[in-house]
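Sequence only, no structure available. Ideas?
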Amino acid sequence: MRTISATFEVVTPMFLGGADQSPDGIRPSSVKGALRFWWRAWAWSALRAQHPDDLPALRALHAQEARLFGLAAKEADSGQGMFVMHVRDRTAAATEQALGTSFDNGILYLLGMGLGSFQGGNHCTRAAIPAQQGSRKSGFEVKLIFKPQAGEADVLAVSSALQLFGLLGALGSRARHGLGSVSMTAMQGQGIPNWQAPQSLPDYQRALKLLLPPVAGTTMPPLSAFSQHTRIDASLSDKDPMKLLARLGREQQAYRSYGKDGMVNGLQAERNFKDDHDLVLKATEGQDVKQVPERVVFGLPHNYFFSSTKGKADVNFKPESGEGRRASPLLLHIHRVGDQYLAIHTLLKARFLPERAKIEVKSRRSQRVDVREADIDWQVLHDYLDRYQDKNKSDIWERIHG
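Reply:
I predicted one. Tokens follow.
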């Protein structure tokens, strides 16, 4: 049986826990879920090229995923998949204040409601696994033991997902906002070359480009996957990962926020989305909403509070039944290379919402707006990523792919 082992560092505090949100360490189910995500992103383009449209390609993707990773016991043809996973967790015990207290407002912005609070000084509201860089006795190890019937293509597929997770991925709450970022430090196994951690941005670029699948066609994927529309940027760097994370949070807050009394974090508010502000403010006053706020492209739900009127509104994806959400297509990852930390943004553009979807602006009265792909302005995200090139010429900025 073939075996692959990989070791990882926890680069930024990780909010990972069980159903009651209490921290219970890094478990195989969490890592396997991340591997499934990155495998789907990696595998989609090749499978789509083999089929005339999305539906049969999605069926093939589901069948391949079930064969490789297994199915839950309650499903038909349930099984274990092509490998068994073991995780050796060496991370330190979770702490209530893994970020300390009175930390930067940029980090508080990335934590968002539920994980961060400014009352009594900026602090976490949940325990987190602390970051542990550079120690061989910290982090975690993943071991994959493949079944005898697993072929070379199976090993390649799963090991590629493992590497993508180790170069772009994270675990836990706010994983798309830079928290819970991991860096793979080594990988070895039968039938694969030994893998060493990149020590510079060029090393990182080479490692990533070797993994990214060839993409063809111009159609937007129906799921988060690498395609012609993908963009990956190395946006900033710093020797301190938390200072880097704080700066990224401040940049995003400056770009997205309307501000209070014309200010955001002590600086003049940019007010890039004044139309969004005015649109939702009118909704809180009972007026009709006839268009989608531009900022929905950052993901749903998101919330508004107007200090001038005390009005509140929630903007959310509203499927035909129940509540919905749309995770952000923009992923932030903090990665260690040598003694530097890189901020890596991955934009996985995909069909934003299902057909006939509606977005609800919930305020004094709920109002739904029909959504079409033309309503989603992807340029909002491109403009955000471009600000790192335009405003931070002294820092690292380089397009890696797309």
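Residues 28-49 form the longest helix (22 residues).
Hope that gets you unstuck.
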